[in-house]
Amino acid sequence: MFIIGELINGMYQDIAKAIKEKHKAIIQKCALEQVKAGASALDVNCGPAAREPINDIQWLVQAIQEVTDKPLALDSSKPQVIESGLKVIKNKAIINSTTADPEKLQALVPLAKKYNARLIGLTISAKGIPQNKDQRLELAAAIVAHCAEEGFPIDDLYLDPIVLPVNVAQAQMKDILESIREFKIISEPSPKAIVGLSNVSQGASARSLVNRTFLVMALAYGLDGAILDPLDKDLMDAAITAELILNKHIYCDSYLEAYRKK
Ligand code: THG
Fold it and tell me: Which of 6, 118, 125, 262 could form a disulfide with 94 if both were Cys (CB 3.0 to 4.6 A apart)?
């Protein structure tokens, strides 16, 4: 599974403060901890309160790149902020994210091509978040069609059904899971499926249990990647075990230890 560590996000107060005060060591520690815990990439989000996101994202990227060469996912709803980050990224970037809104696609698909970046497409439109799996599939197909027309490699496209909190959208959970399976059969080669996992447990108690249960189920539906908290050891163990059962690693009695050493 492609694991994107979610912790460098200005929604967290300590990270917001580190960004504001340009305290590099805090960001670098957070990057290294996530990589050590098994993150294959790191999400980089200046947060909702950032006053200068165009400068902040460049500062974040540069600080992180001093300590790791893992791919970075530039997480912003503003194309100018994403482009600013792309300019200073040395390795392969991930654009997080476009929506199915034509204006967004027209801004971000050319950027993804120009910078040879992977692209996350959210199944959301100007009308908002879909209320069922048919609307999700329709938006997913529109994103795939746009990428194919523009010559963007579908192998580099991740579709995100947008996970909603179970405490407010319980009736949608099954549709979200089924969307993951449906996304994979839109085209050949197939787009990949990714989720922002922690959304599912926002406002819920027993967050870690809710997160890992959803993740294991989503993996069974064909999930390829997740933005998650890699420091949650129970979550990582559940993911490794689910992938073992799905025959993605070879079984040995010490498989958890063996996988972590990889
Ligand atoms: N899809 C994609 N990108 C995403 C998301 C998604 N990026 C952002 C988000 N969703 C994924 N990242 C997080 C990070 C933290 C939390 C949820 C999702 C979170 N934070 C706590 C809270 O809000 O309760 C704690 C915040 C705090 O300490 O202040 O749950 O869906 N492509």
Answer: 118
Whether 24 and 63 have beta carbons less than 8 Å apart is answered as: yes
Burial 143-162 (b: 16+ CB within 10 A, else e): bbebbeeeebebebbbbbbb
Domain extents for the chain? 2-261
Fold designation for 2-261 = TIM Barrel (3.20.20)
- Quote the pTM value: 0.97
Mutate to test the pocket of ligand 1, among 34, 157, 227 (most ligand atoms within 8 A of CB): 227
Note whether 191 and 231 are within 8 A (CB).
no
Per-residue pLDDT of 55-97, as tens digits, reads 999 999 999 999 999 999 999 999 999 999 999 999 999 999 9
For the four alpha carbons of 212, 214, 220 and 223, in that order, the dihedral sign comes to negative
Distance CA 34, CA 7 (A): 8
- pLDDT tens digits, one per residue of 133-167: 999 999 999 999 999 999 999 999 999 999 999 99
Q: Whose CA is nearest to atom 21 of ligand 1?
A: 202
Residue to mutate (ligand 1; options 164, 202, 228, 231; most atoms within 8 A of CB): 202
One DSSP character per residue, 101-131 reads -HHHHHHHHHHHHHTT-EEEEES-BTTBS-S
CA angle 210, 156, 120 (to 5 degrees): 45
